[in-house]
Amino acid sequence: MSRTVYCEYLQKEAEGLDFQLYPGELGERIFNHISKEAWAEWQKKQTMLINENRLNMMAEDDRKFLEERMKEFLFERKDVTVEGYTPPSES
């Protein structure tokens, strides 16, 4: 049975995550307030950030950087920008 949450990112009721995917208080907040759809969007952005910035997930500074972007993206609805990345044009 799926659970529904009010997704802070989508600003609407949506299917919630099946389990907590991120540790600690932030993970709890994501579990309770972020939908599967929003999390999938973040995963795409995260992969882009890791690749474009050549982040090392073993490095604490890189993990902190990524966590800050995640909070901004999911809870402040700030889009993730990657320097040097140009999205395909919509024309």
TrEMBL record:
MF terms in GO: iron ion binding
NCBIfam families: PRK05408.1 (NF003817)
SUPFAM superfamilies reported for this sequence: YggX-like
PANTHER family registered for this protein in UniProt: FE(2+)-TRAFFICKING PROTEIN-RELATED
Pfam families: Iron_traffic
Matching InterPro entries: Fe_traffick_prot_YggX (IPR007457), Fe_traffick_prot_YggX_sf (IPR036766)
Lineage: Bacteria, Pseudomonadati, Pseudomonadota, Gammaproteobacteria, Alteromonadales
GO biological process, any: cellular response to oxidative stress
Family as reported in the entry's similarity comment: Belongs to the Fe(2+)-trafficking protein family.
Organism: Idiomarina fontislapidosi
Highest taxon in the source lineage: Bacteria
Main function: Could be a mediator in iron transactions between iron acquisition and iron-requiring processes, such as synthesis and/or repair of Fe-S clusters in biosynthetic enzymes. Necessary to maintain high levels of aconitase under oxidative stress.
CC annotations in GO: cytosol
Name listed for the protein in its UniProt record: Probable Fe(2+)-trafficking protein
Keywords of this entry: Iron
